[in-house]
Specification:
By secondary structure, the protein is α/β, with parallel strands linked by helices. It contains 13 helices and 13 strands. Strand 8, helix 6 and strand 9 form a beta-alpha-beta unit. The chain starts with a helix and ends in a 10-residue tail after the last helix.
Length: 360
């Protein structure tokens, strides 16, 4: 049924159908009765899936990645749709319109998306107001913060700190996004000498767990350097990875991809590199950082592979688009089955097991 609905939705422009689908989600979960019905259909209540990470209790490991709920408009919906947590944003200190449309593109043959949204959002103050009004008892919420486009690099630390000061007290954790390819110069901030003052400023502004989100296009040496910096500064963890600027191995015709132009590619084409980065991070600092793996997860086998490779938590966005409202349920049920089949008592026992540690 969802396959048919997806084909119909794909008749509309991607950003238009995103707004319509998100509106339907918000209306369906606006009242308690709707949330209870959605949870009965899509959520998995299984204690084997519960995760404790950086002082936060997550009912299940798969969360909604940043990018879908940019303005914290659906903060009460995501638990009912089966997610164990959600990340709002990316939010910037000041409101900004983002890049000109069209800026979101589908690659159905690859189950992938290309976006060059450019951090379009209502600003940190507006997002904070919405998070402040969220209903009690929901799933944990992360705040993904980025640099305002017009803020020069030398003032980036203050820009990030402003957003952290507004959202940190209200969210359960904060993610510093320096890895989107759609804001000019942003990825340059992943260099350790540029990243250090930003992370230090955010850490000084909030007492909530702070993580950094990195790109799959970093070299292995730069991945190591960010991991070392995160440990040195006392970060809670790393989100790996964001979208990629690479265009390798696509089924979509090359001429069509070239016509789309610049932007970050998400979905299965980024999966292999995302897994490589995760394994490298776990080998480097897995016992000192919580790793959240995102990028190309479509099914329970891939999700469980990420856990065995070192991920404590998982995230998805493109998989949700192509998989539909029952996507999180299918993955969580599959993870629970694989945990029990492997003799694990919970997620924590399985994290990093592929590296030869924490075996049941």
């Amino acid at each position: 049924m969802y396959s048919l609905l997806l084909r119909l939705m794909f008749l509309l422009p991607p950003e238009r159908i995103h707004h319509l689908a998100f509106l339907a989600i918000r209306w369906a979960t606006r009242f308690a009765a709707g949330r209870r019905l959605a949870a009965a259909l899509f959520a998995v209540d299984d204690p084997i899936l519960a995760v404790d990470a950086f002082g936060v209790r997550f009912p299940a490991p798969l969360g909604l990645a940043a990018g879908f709920d940019k303005n914290a408009e659906g903060v009460d919906a995501w638990g009912a749709l089966g997610f164990g947590f959600a990340e709002i944003g990316t939010v910037t200190a000041q409101p900004q319109p983002g890049n000109p449309a069209p800026r979101l593109f589908r690659l159905p043959a690859d189950h992938a998306l290309i976006n060059r949204m450019g951090f379009n959002n209502d600003g940190a103050a507006a997002a904070a107001d919405r998070v402040r009004d969220r209903r009690p008892g929901g799933v944990p919420l992360g705040a993904n913060i980025g640099k305002t486009k017009i803020t020069p690099p030398e003032r980036a630390a203050g820009d990030y700190a402003h957003s952290a000061g507004l959202l940190g007290p209200l969210a359960d954790f904060v993610v510093v996004n320096v890895s989107s390819p759609n804001t000019p110069g942003l990825r340059d901030l992943q260099a350790v000498e540029s990243l250090r003052p930003i992370l230090a400023a955010v850490l000084a502004e909030t007492d909530k767990p702070v993580l950094v989100k990195i790109a799959p296009d970093l070299s292995d040496e730069d991945v190591d350097a960010v991991a070392d910096l995160a440990v040195e500064l006392g970060l809670a963890g790393i989100v790996a990875t964001n979208t990629t600027i690479a265009r390798r191995g696509l089924r979509t015709p090359e001429v069509e991809v070239e016509t789309i132009g610049a932007g970050g590619l998400s979905g299965p084409p980024v999966a292999a590199r995302s897994l490589q980065v995760l394994r490298r991070l776990y080998a480097r600092a897995g016992d000192r950082l919580v790793l959240i793996s995102v990028g190309g997860i479509e099914n329970a086998d891939q999700a469980f592979e990420r856990i065995l490779a070192g991920a404590t938590l998982l995230q998805g966005y493109t998989g949700f688009i192509y998989g539909g409202p029952a996507w999180a349920r299918h993955i969580h049920r599959g993870i629970a089955q694989r945990l029990r089949a492997g003799g694990y008592t919970g997620i924590a026992d399985a994290v990093g097991a592929a590296h030869g540690a924490n075996r049941a």
